[in-house]
What we know:
Elements: H1 5-13, H2 16-30, H3 34-39
Amino acid sequence: MGVRADTLRRLGVGDRAFAAAYALAAARVAGVHVEAILTGEWPRPGACPHCGRAG
């Protein structure tokens, strides 16, 4: 996704508003519901960790 280091730092520090926005953006890019991102349902076990496609 082309994530910069300062983006990861903000997620790690607990910036909740920023983390929520990032989760929404990740879900939009992946084409899944945000709940799938937050609960760890996406990507499914055995799928590519980068694109989510099953091999």
